[in-house]
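User: Is it possible to get a 3D structure for a protein together with its bound compound? The compound here is heme C. I've pasted both below.
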Amino acid sequence: MFAPYAADMRILNLLALGLFTSLLCAQPGMELYRQQCSACHGERGRGDGPAARFLDPKPRDFRSGYFRFISASNSVPTDGDLWEAISAGLPGSAMLSFAHLPPEQRTMLVDIVRGFRRDGLRERFATAIQDPAALEAAVLEADTPGPLVDMPAETPNTVDARANGALLFTRLCSACHGADGRGVYDPARLTAEGDVAQPRDLTRGVLKGGVEDVRLWQRIRAGIPGTPMPAVPQRELSDADTWDLVHYVQALIPRGQQELHDPMPWTIAVPRHKGTLPTSADDPAFAALKPTWVALAPFQSHTRTVEGVSVRALHDGEHIALRLEYADRTYDVAGAKAVAPDGVAVRVTSTAVPPVLPIPGSPLPVDRALWLASAKPAADDPVFDKLTPRFENPDGVCRSPIGPEHVGRAQWRDGVWTVLMVLRPERAGHIAETVNMPVSFAIFDGSVARGPLPAAFSHWQRLHFER
Ligand code: HEC
Ligand code: HEC
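Assistant: Yes, that's possible. Here is the predicted structure of the complex:
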């Protein structure tokens, strides 16, 4: 039986056996780091958390020293750069936004990340420098950001300016980004970590470090350390030319894409429904609700997969009816051919600020529901036809709240899945006694599946039950 979530949980559990047992939480925020970051970045910041092997690009190895989205000219991240990465996330990658954590917690995380960077420097310098005071001085010096990228007053954004920007782009950028900005794949271009560096497709409009003027100035003047993308200093590109280039790059970027990929936690209003909950996604009760767009983070940044899901929800005091709608160009169902099916996993929990990924050894009180598109008729589902795939419960490890009372319907039309799931939370608490309930979504995409994992996952969102 195809049970992606079960397999994924088992792998994560095995990989992490014993990992967290010896941790001494001496530094403030270390427990927070362990909860929220270590599944990817590893207990000691080496980028080797249990989930790392599934991710591309890999989670940053904080000890290696290569931070990408920086504002200083000497490749050293400022506290502000780290704060920005933690707060805004890196849209289009598995690095989500942690803006929901209070500012003082994010400050602690900045210090922890910097602490790991210094540990890495200390390790590297220790063979050459024996004297402890001299070693500390060398570490501090190597961890001090240089002068910041300076952005002078904006020059006019005219047709001529953008035409000059286009010429500069062809000369300086197109070898990697392509004449059209879509990016050129070249397996010989590697990152400092030895992975293939993939220049961004600028026409997708999703930039990890942000699309604002100042962000693009930083990328051009500071480069992207650890990747082949070079820094272009002022002596090679005047301020006026840099502005023209920034204006040209911005013109390549379709408006609104960055906002759609904001990997933030949102609140999903769940009005109380009078009477029986809808049994069809086409029910007018859903049409009356404003959908909440939930951005999804890909496990593999370079595969084109589902980018987000539009969520509407209702409750009746006991059950939640979720109507999910998302674009997926290919229709993949499990059937005779062993193709990985499309599907959706929904998790709800009673934990107020749950970690993004399950932490081995500290299970959350989670209710999980899994739907996988299946071409096999379910014996117990009289309404089955090819376009209403059945709901399949995951086995063993993952408990499904979809009991006998579940209702599940899904339909694929013209590249859009519409899925209705009705769940009754048990471990996550009772709706009648709950105001906010964290919920997260993961999408399986058969056309890009490379293993048992979903292709993309969301941050924890908040279901807000209205009375
Ligand atoms: C689901 C996995 C995941 C979790 C959880 C996660 N990260 Fe990341 N993080 C990544 C990945 C992947 C990257 C690299 C993305 C890239 O380069 O495209 C990254 C990059 C970073 C960077 C580097 C930014 C730069 O400029 O190079 C920082 C800093 C960071 N993460 C901090 C954190 C902190 C702090 C937490 C916990 C609050 C956290 N991350 C949780 C996956 C994760
Ligand atoms: C030698 C190859 C190379 C050259 C030349 C190059 N880039 Fe890049 N660029 C990259 C790579 C690789 C990435 C992706 C880095 C990553 O995310 O790990 C990238 C990413 C970017 C990004 C995305 C940053 C983000 O926040 O996501 C922008 C914008 C960009 N490049 C602009 C430019 C401009 C403008 C030029 C010309 C001045 C240029 N690049 C020249 C390789 C290159």
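Residues 1-25, 377-406 have pLDDT under 50 and may be disordered. The pocket of heme C (ligand 2) is lined by residues 68-69, 172-173, 175-177, 197, 199-200, 207-209, 216, 219-220, 224, 227-230, 232, 245, 249 (CB under 6 Å).
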